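thoughts on these tokens:
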Amino acid sequence: MRSAEPPPDRASVEVAVPRRPGRLPGVRMAGFRQRGPERADIAMVAHPSVTLLIDLSDGDGLSCRARGRRERGSTVIGLLPGDLRLGGGGNGGTECLQIRLSPVLAPAVFGESAALTGAAVPLEDVWGRDAGRVEGELRAAASWEERFAIAADALGRRIAARPPLDPEVSAAWRLLLAGRGRVRVDALADEVGWSRQHLWSRFRSRIGLTPKHAARLVRFDHAARLLAAGRPAARAAAASGYTDQAHLHREVRAFTGVTPAAVAVAPWLAVDDVAWPARRGQGRTAPT
């Protein structure tokens, strides 16, 4: 377990977000560019989404290390990747597009999401030749706003080409988010009109986690945001429904391998809208 580490130098990082978010419900994007010779090695915090990092860097580019395996370049990070580290910088700096997808959309975009749970895999392994084509279009774009539009088109085509998830599974996921993970599986099953066993089986096969484990992840995410916003651990634990501070500590360690103090300094690809509150709305910064 790692102790708290100093946060990255936010002054050296440019952050861009779409001027009109929400074009694709369940999809959130942000662009990151860091110039300078410093190399980054930061922990990423677990999140209730499947994350796509498209590497747009010159030089060394991005690297992701999860569960003892290192991937370079554009990477898909499934739910629950464990102790995940992101590296980059050095020669040429680091530039990437981060896309977070609701697990309800992930099967359409990447195939069966269960295969990605607990893993970080090269985008090329999932998308084949389309990965290089999309990355090339993004590199050639004249602005972050154009990049966001290109990415939305690529995702939209994939989503439209596959049938949606069972509406019951989608509804159960929305209920978990609305309840911040504090929803019993029996209540979910009653709400969607399925038996507990059928919901458990179908949810796990499509989302990649059991409903109970998904609820834990959503609740942890709520606590992580409170910690990143400066809430003391004891108060974050109480507000998130944990038995006590020790319970929160155990969950943080289980999901991230770090302490609540480390989560509280929210690395630059972790809790974006909390970690970068003053950086939103910079979606028209042109790449150089």
